[in-house]
Amino acid sequence: MMATAHFDSIADVLSSLRADVPENPLGTDRSREQYEWIDWGDDDGGRIMPSLNSPFTSPYLYRGQTKRHSRCLPSLYRELTRDVELVTHPQKLSPKRRDGYLLSQIRIAEFLYLLDQHPAIGFAREIGLHLSQIALAQHYEIPTDHLDLTADPEVAAFFAACWCDDRGEWHAVEDGEGIVYRFDLTAFPGALGDKFEPAAFFRCVEMIGLQTLPRPGEQKAWTIRLPLGLDFERLPLDVFTFRHRSEVGRTLLDRFDHGRILFPRDVLAEAAKTIRTSSSVPTSILRKVLIDHECRPDMLDEAVRSYCYRFRDEFRIDATDRQPLALDPEQVATAVAEVERTRAGFLGNVGVRPVKIRDIPVLISLLADRRDWNRATSAKVLGELGATAKDALPALRAALHDVSGIVRTAAATAIRQISESGSCSLSRDA
Questions:
Q1: What are the residues facing 239 on neighbouring strands?
Q2: Are 178 and 67 a contacting pair, CB within 8 Å?
Q3: pLDDT digits (tens, 9 = 90+) for 299-343
Q4: Rounded to whole angstroms, what are the CA distances from 29 to 37, 51, 308?
Q5: What's the confidence (pLDDT) of residue 56?
Q6: Which of 231, 274, 275, 374 has the fewest CB atoms found within 10 Å of its own CB?
Q7: Sheet of 35-38: strands edge to edge?
Q8: Is the pLDDT reported for residue 429 higher than 50?
Q9: For a pLDDT cut of 90, what percent of the chain falls above it?
């Protein structure tokens, strides 16, 4: 059952939200890694999640809006279902809005083409990090069937109390009512009943979280994917409305450096805006999307011609032979520099839950894992075990020749730790 409450300001909402977060039964420990690498053993890569004893571990996710809408829908569906009843399938939309849906799919596909070239994505693949490309597209403001959520109530409060103008400058809302939604991760599976499947749940509600791109990590970002026809407010939520007070909004602006903390310089964001606002789409991407939608091969050329005409007639968007957008040389250089800065300390605050064990044979076997970070972390844990892990020394010496620099460094450190620990033990015995 959805709970609702009204408050005098967003500051009062924040106080209530903080007070309602249940105490972590494991306690919190700032001296330990604040994130953990979770790997379910599939081929989908690992995910970086808040550790179980992190200060920001909570069963709640939040969403802030400067005002409440009668339907809380993903950006992809807002225009498609405006002024009409909610429908459950694109084929039930009017012809023009079906065309608008296809146009949105083309924008998404062009963004994914661009994303694939970004050096941050190469770094993520190098370390075996899971990539939810559509969730990232949503977070870079490409209209999708996802809604943004955050694990940080202060981030939600910022988006509830502040608005952004066309120049990208943030301001405090002066009057009216804002809203914060609280989504209980533990209640949602129960609402699905017998249909609940963990794998499907994590495809629906996904932590973007700590990523090799800067923006999602700063925003403690999650997304939820909603099918066409589902209003977010129909889910099990708590709803907190509040009166806008500009002085409180300005406090949040200062807290997040007028948005610069949440929106650090990011060439991908600049390129995404170009895609979002472009007056053209590439016919090569149009063809790809039509093929993905199972357009008959013998009808493909005719379908491309038809959509070129309809996009121009209905939306003043030209489908042309231009190449899909790519980062220019200056943007590539900036992105490479950003990734190199990220790479230096990216995994320094990340533990690995599956290998936080004391089974030395298992840890040795993980030195042959296909993912660089799993190999590096197993070496790290073996080093922490000291002299008791002496049987791992042959495998660690072999790891000194690993293709990955982070594995070689971790192996060298582990060998030193094990050797020094063994020397200390011998001195005590003597």
A1: 4, 181
A2: yes
A3: 999 999 999 999 999 999 999 999 999 999 999 999 999 888 888
A4: 17, 10, 58
A5: 66
A6: 274
A7: 47-50, 35-38, 350-352
A8: no
A9: 46
Residue 426 has pLDDT above 50, yes or no: no
Q: What are phi and psi of 223, to 5 degrees?
A: -140, 160
> Is the per-residue pLDDT at 173 higher than 80?
yes
Q: Give CB contacts under 8 A, 24+ apart, made by 189-193.
A: 191/235, 191/236
DSSP state of 67: S
pLDDT in tens, 223-261: 898 888 788 988 889 999 999 999 999 999 999 999 999
* CA distance linking residue 267 with residue 119, whole number of Å: 11
339, 267 Cβ separation under 8 angstroms:
no
> Among 211, 65, 225, 48, which residue's Cα sits nearest to residue 144?
225
**Phi-psi domain of 193 (left: phi exceeds 0; alpha: psi -120 through 50; beta: other):** left
Q: Are 49 and 209 in contact (CB under 8 A)?
A: yes
Strands (E), 226-348: 237-243, 280-282, 318-320
Residue type for 205, please? V
Residue with tokens 């450190």: 413
Q: Which of 315, 175, 165 is nearest to 245 (CA)?
A: 175
Q: How many residues does the structure list for the chain?
A: 430
Q: What is the pLDDT of residue 208?
A: 81
Mean pLDDT, residues 174-202 = 71
Place of tokens 């599956």: 354
Token pair for 391: 């049987």
- Indicate if the alpha-carbon torsion angle 257, 151, 35, 270 is positive or negative: negative
Q: Can you give the pTM of this predicted structure? A: 0.76
Residues 148, 215: contact at Cβ < 8 Å?
A: no
Which helix or strand (DSSP H or E) is residue 105 part of? Answer: helix 95-117
b/e map 408-425, b = 16+ CB within 10 Å? bebbbbbbebbeebbeee
In terms of C-beta density within 10 A (0-12 exposed, 13-18 middle, 19 or more buried), how is residue 316 classed?
A: exposed
Q: Phi/psi at 56 (nearest 5 deg)?
A: -105, 20
